[in-house]
User: What shape does this take?
Amino acid sequence: MSAATLLEVRDLHVYLGESHILQGVSFDVRQSGITGLLGRNGVGKTTTLRGILGLVTRTGHVVLGGEETTALPVHEIVRRGVAYVPEDRDVFAGLTVEENLRLAERAGSELRYDLVYELFPELRQRAAQKAGTLSGGQQQMVALARALLNADNRILLVDEPTKGLAPLVVRQVVEALQRAAEVATILLVEQNLSVAHKLVRDVVVLDQGRVSFTGDVDQLMGDPELARRHLGLAAAGSH
Amino acid sequence: MTTIALLLITGLGLGALYFLIAAGLSLIWGLMRVLNFAHGAFFTVAAYAGWSASRLLTSSPAELRWAVAVVVAIVVGGAFAALTEVLLIRPLYSRHVGQVLVTVGLALATISLVQGGFGSDPQPFAVPDWMTNTSSIAGAGIPNTRLLVIVFAAVVLAVLLFFLQRTRFGLIVRAGVENRDMVQALGIDVQRAFTLVFTIGGMAAGLSGILAATYYGTVDPVRGTSMLIFAFIVVIIGGLGSVTGSAVAAVVVGVLQQFLNFYAAAGVGDFSVVLLLAVVLLVRPGGFSGSST
Amino acid sequence: MTRSVRIGVAVLLVVLAVLPFVGITIPGLFDGALNAPGTLNLLGMCFVFGALAVTYDIVFGYVGLLSFGHALYFATGVYVTAIALARWHWSLPAALALTVVVSLVLPLVLGAICLRMRDIPFAMVTLAFAQAGSILVMQNPFGLTGGEEGLALGGDVLPSFLVGVVNTRNVYWVAFALIVVVYVVAWRAVNSPPGRVWQAIRENERRVGVLGLNPYLYKLGAFVLSAFLASICGVVYLLLQGGANPQVTTADFTLALLVMVVLGGVGTLWGAVLGGLAYEYLDFRLVALSNAPAVQSLPALLRVPLSEPLFLLGVLFIVLVLFVPGGLGGALRRRLPLRA
Assistant: This one.
């Protein structure tokens, strides 16, 4: 069970304007499996993912597979095997599905179009369609497919992949994440706690820009008092 | 009828010059959110570089001198733009207003330097004789320079569209216009795309500069600034970040300007173009192509 | 402001007010005596540009609107007054009344259109409208503007106390009053409740909207106030120059204005004053420098750049933007116990 650490985040601070969004966030992500990054709205989960990628100005340390990546430009961090599936999916609306995927291709990386089309057969049929005309669920598939495409991706940063999706599509996304977890490590931000509970092994909980809990998912979810304290009242009532 | 044909083609020629400036401006704005005032400086410096090269070759045939001037203008425009991006724009990354201000300073400094070096008055630019002749189209004698400019702009439009639609760099540029952060998050060095787009924009502006010299028969230190303002209008009407939109808007603006300047009074056409801009903004704040960003 | 700074400012104001009675010369700084007409005229122009920079700083520095069309409103003040006086032979009060009306209506209409855009598109549109104004002036419609030649006022259209070399001191006082009044109005405006909304818009427009305020109306208010004050600056400029010239309508003129404000430091009124004063003074002195024998005898490679004031100012501007983001005002503030 004690796998090696893939990603270390140490003392991460982010300021956006006047607000101190992250106030010294530190945690580890173990190799393989899915680590959940949980917490109430606005506690800095998305900012943490963007901070790991260098999309926001931050101080502190991000160490990937033993290599310090903090000072690298975004594209260099990504080329070391980090993929990002943002909250708003951020597919390129004016580009076709096929172009969206082609843009994600990385030189020197083996490409897993088989896996992508096996998980999301719809994308093959809609290859020539503009991504902006897809439904929310289909756009989420494109976003996940972009992250899964390169075989040398070591860690996927996935931000609320099931938000606003129909139950059927949620099931498809969950399945895709489970398959993805077989080949890569995933750091997952998820507000749907039943989805999170199903997928996640380790948990990091953020509260107001700080880590308030780290440990096993069953430990957190199994203890209503603990869950209520860290995830809020709503969490205790959800299933 | 002949007057209409003449005005139409002259307007198209003017639109072609606008388009060559606007295409680069539009891409630079779309990708980098930089309003590049230095574009007029690229235009002017490239035109003077081409003109100087042509003057050095006085004993060569006129066609060769002109061709050399065109090549020099394109190269100088591209090189100047690339240097601008690397030395002045890049250090101000994420300070958009700072970037605009630097290009303003560069435009002021460069144009006044050109004026200091070559004088404030327009200088004659020698072109091959056949260019100053006219061809008969629909009964009207059309100066060949007009046709030449239109052909060049059409070729540039085709090359740009091919580049944008069919190459990986084009894919990166189109994606970057939509969402620059996400392009980086796919592992792409968007900085290189910036330099490339600036260089291409500079080359097109340089070509526009030397073609304008051919069209008017002179190089003029202040022409770049007034062309730049109409190119800005073209970019807004055409939709920021859209090359095709720029092409359509450039034609509309050029033709409208020519017709009204002729049928109403000199200056009315220029004035109406600004009114057209106001109308477009009131009806569709995003321009013809309707991009909302 | 600390007490010592306040006393310093008061002393400076008194000195500037009585300057036309001071006959001493400061070699190197000004060519003639302090109360010589040439010096007073230069100082008056410095005041006009200091005041104009303040009006520009209201929209650019406080609301964050990058307008490239400010020249249009300055030129409105210059040309409307000049046309009413010289072409229609109106009295000065009548001409001023017309100018006031036009200077309020024009920015109201154009601002309402331009402010449909934000950020850089806004900048482009303001530039386009200013260009339309410039074209209009250059075309000399109905022989009103004089086109490229400009429009001289002539001796008989103004009250006699504003005309002639002996009365330069009166015009100087008008310019001095202008900068004081514009500064005070601008200061009161940016420190009023709407002024605080302007600054909130600059920081985060959406948040202002969420608070239930309409950012559009606040921006339009700032735009009109700034443009109106700029037109008044244009009127005083006309008095100092004795005529209108089309240079004040050009995009280059707005760009020069931008240089002034950035030179002084964006978002501080006294920084803008400093920038305007410094720009006008430098522009004037650099022309003198370029004609100096020492420069004229240099090889062309050095002489040409040094002979072009705009080149030197442009380069200075680039250096400031790259290395001194706060401008002169910001650099000074770090050394002096001042607050904006």
About this structure: The longest strand of chain A covers residues 5-16. Chain A has one domain: 5-237. The CA atoms of residues 79 and 106 of chain A lie 8 Å apart. Confidence is low (pLDDT under 50) at residues 235-239 of chain A.
